[in-house]
Amino acid sequence: MLLPGSATLPLLDRDEPRFATATVEMINRGQWVIPTFNGQERFDKPILTYWLMRIGYAIAGQTELGARLHSILATLGLVWVTYRAGLRWFGPRVGWYAAVGLVTCLQIIVHGRLAVADMLVVLAIAVAQVSLGDLLLRSQPSSRRRSLSWWGLYVALGVGFLAKGPVAWAVPIVSLIVFRWAFKQRVRDWGVFDIGRGLMLVLSIVCAWGLPALWITEGRFLRVGLGEHVVLRGVEGFNGRGFNPLFYLATSVFSLFPWIVLVPSVAWLLKNQWGGRNAWLMSWFVAPYILFTPYATQLPHYVLPGFPAFFMLLAQVLERGSETLSLLARRWAIGILTAFLCLLGVVGLAAASAALRPGVEPLGDAVVSLVLVVSGVGLIPLGWLLGTRAGFAGLLLVAVGCHGAAIHLRAMSTTTQLSRIWHSVDPTTRFIGCRYMEPSVVFYSRGQWAFLDDFEALPHALDVRGDVLSVSVIEERDPLEMLFGGLARRLGVRLDPRFRSYRERWEKLVISSWGQARPGWRVRDIQGLNVGRGRWQTLRVLWREGPAKSRVDQRATVLGP
Fold first, then answer.
1. What are the residue ranges spanned by the domains of the chain?
2. Count of C-beta atoms within a 10 Å radius of residue 309
3. DSSP assignment letter at 516
4. In which region does residue 534 sit, left (phi positive, over 0), alpha (psi from -120 to 50) or beta (all else)?
5. Which residue of 21, 145, 491, 496 could cross-link 443, Cys pair, CB 3.0 to 4.6 Å?
6. Between β-strands 468-477 and 430-434, what pairing exists: parallel, antiparallel or unpaired?
7. CA–CA gap between residue 115 and residue 124 (Å, rounded)
8. Could you tell me the pLDDT band of residue 314, with boundaries at 50, 70 and 90?
9. Residue 552: pLDDT over 50
């Protein structure tokens, strides 16, 4: 579920290339404490992800797979922890169903392979929550000898902070509050927590890195990392995102897909099998929703820490078999899944037919591959509900779809296309991005970039000695409009029809301002998908090589007057 496509898929969004590049820069500088991106200090997250990514690079090289390896292994660890908890608390079949359900939900398939810090903190929170549940519900009184659960709780809290900061503490605390005061569950023995010594252990783990980091940065890591990237994101939407109190309920339909269709059976279980264990699992599941619903910056994966608890609840339904589901609930789940798979089939056929048009073939192929992934995920619970082999077919479709989507996204990614040009220039080349501020170019070019907001500053930035390469966005449009625009208009669905062109402005401010021919300059246009922005763009690449340089892109043209 996780490996197919992970080595081929280009770095996505904004965070993957920032983590991957910062680790490369730490390796190049021989640094272990302070990460940097594009030569600037990066305070977004603590240090653990960068350390583990170095191990991934040592195993698989400084590649996409090397950057993602720690996240894949953390996801496997999360599945194992979920299995073991379900086995110990409810039996082997519950542990098995919980593990399978977790690794086959859509959000885990997507996020479980990304080169970011999230799966590390989700694993740490899972270990802490399982340990906390053992301590809360243990039947025997505490002894002086600290148990394995005690060590698991506090070590996980310390390691979780090094992965993603205070969220590793907030989720267990909110879970405990809900368990004790909202669900009115009695804690048998508070002394088993030995909180004083536990906090000392947590602080010793955090301070092993935190104190040197604060010393070297003169406190900036705390002010920026905690102040801006935790507190400020809680009161102001990040990257212009709006606030919606129902955001996580709505996105759970996709994040927990396809198992979301069995939520009514989980409600039945809680009504009929309420007890200490299930009360703790429900407290664990709802804690991230309570914590992040009022948080201004909203992203679907923020509630991932609660997913293991949900699947341990769901697994109890699956373990009891079809008799747990009423005939109505069973038909409802099968009907919803079948209707959704039919809708995906229509989307896939539309994308396949659109891909026959010149210029959008790679987009159509990528959409068809993604449809295979989601369809495969939807078939997995149908295999359980219908008693067929559809679940195994679903696993195969997910693997094939992930592999195909990675190939097509890489082929049309603007960043990977640009790599064919900058791999032919001198390593000391000055790189400039104008209206093209994608972090992935820093990783793939292995150089430092100057990013400009507008074309007016570009002529001055190009007027330097030595080799220089600039990338400017001169056209962009919505890829969904390219694929489905005609079909959407016939169905009355509105897509973004705007086609933005900056070509004339670029030529006016760059070419016209020079006023004469510039020998040695070459220009080439590239079309492709900007994966981070989700836009189909035309990029104008302008670069200058000295007369001694022989490795020149033959598809480029010499820039005239």
1. 15-323, 327-412, 414-558
2. 27
3. S
4. left
5. 21
6. parallel
7. 17
8. very high
9. no
